Fold each of these.
Amino acid sequence: MNSSFALFYFSSIPYRYLLQRPQQLFHAFQKLYPELDVYYVEPPCGIRSYLKRKKQAAPGVLNRVINIPSNYCLPGALRFNRWSLEHVISSRALNGKKLVAMACASFWEPLLSHEFFDLIIYDCLDAIDVHAADGNYDELAHKHALLVNKANIVFATAAKLREDILWTSPEKPVVVVSNGVDGNFFAERCCKKIRFPVVSGKVVGYVGAVRDWIDIDLLAETARMMSHITFVIVGPIEIKCQDIIKSCPDNIVFVGEQPYDDVPAWIARFDVALIPFRNSAIAEATNPVKLYEYFQLGKPVVATPMRELSQYCDDGLLYFADNAKGFAEAITLALDSGVVESEHRKNIAGMNSWQSKARMMMEQIINLTADCRSTT
């Protein structure tokens, strides 16, 4: 393993937030390449949040999680942010190693310079629509384009993201590295005791944030058709979705956000798992982490049609439906799914470990470091 460089993963979320791709890759890089200097850079924040994050850093990773104070409202914030970032990184004892920046959010673009970093990588996770709010789509799209142009290579979680990037930057190296799952984590925790709702009969469940791209209306209508089934929804609920869930039938149980340590145990209690995305640009370009988590425990999945999931439909591993009647029928079929299909799902999850994704990325990074000062 070439340890002549240090890798800085510029995340879209704080280290202590919901465990997602940024933290999973950070952990995988650390585990696979212990001789490599790997750092997790949290999004810039105000001084109070900065001090709070410093106190909350997990034991064992304290010196590997970098956070910088910032205030975007102040004049000269960009210059201060860049100075803070480069000062913190330069203070590490890196002994002249090359510096590799991997950013998973376009808001980092103004802070990443080839004058400071030898290699810049864009880990493109989602469609721009996921992060666009308050009319800032154009701003994010502009930064996305700038980061694509600045990057030596782009990793994309979904084929649609790769196609969109190549449409505007046909010469750019873009490699699809889909999401994954930590199989050992799920195996160790799937039997953990949790406060599961008291239910009778079968349980159909969803794990993930309840945001405006989740089709709650579809869930509600399906639940009304299947009053003998309990639908358990595990995850934080966005404020704009609060009103609509009040009109859901009683056999839908919203349990709110749960510790990620407990997620395997929640999924283990599902008879069928759901991915109910609305038909949108977000769904078209999403490779859902929850698919691999569901498959890791062998669960049959019912989902709205999504391009990234279509490869699993033909073998009875996953069922598509785009309306409540179809969802109810698909759930009924999924409840009869057998042991053979369950083992097939587990095998697919095993081939999509986070460590396998980290290896794919590292192969590309090592190949680029020999000439990492060149820009495209």
Amino acid sequence: MTITLRAIKGSELTHVEVDANFSDLDGRVIVNIDGIANNVADIVTNASSIANNTTNIISNDVDIVSLHERFGWIIVADTGGDINLTVADTFYKLTNNGAGAQTDLTHGVATHKSIWNTSTSQLEFDDLAIGDRVQFRLNFSVVASNPNVELMTKVNFGIGAITPSVPLFSLIVDHMSYKAAGLKQFNVEFSAVIQNASMRDFPGEITVSSDATNDTVNVEGFVITTFIR
């Protein structure tokens, strides 16, 4: 509705025209108030959306931190000297005292102890859960006393679970041969999933054997990475 102005009409307004002008203005105020109310409601809604998005961002940050805490690695460097493989086709335990300068235990999973026990040179999985995975990298050197020698690396799991000092099962993780005698460098990588309670609750050991006599092994270090489900 259009407001009737006296200057445009050229004469005094009638009572009806004055009332009509006030009614028009009153209607405009109500419409504007409704519009302001709607805008305020939109602002409140947007503020709620921002709050929800902020909550989601915080939740995602927590998830990222949680994911980070489910992954960890350690380096265990040895200074223990040579291990003599005096008898052919016999597995000898690899030892690692963790006293090397490159040892770094600060990046393991915060809620778990170190998987490698430097006192016993054994693997201890009892802080893990069934389904967790452990990845290994073994760095060691071998001095072969004879040419045409085969070397095997075997990991024993669940030692003592059924019979004292006897593993529940063993896994050959590497099988290598070398034609010439002398110093050989080895990097063995493998991973294992914690399959059952016996594998988790009883220790494991890393062993090597040669089909020749009087070879020697020098452990340089292990990198052990833990993946928590």
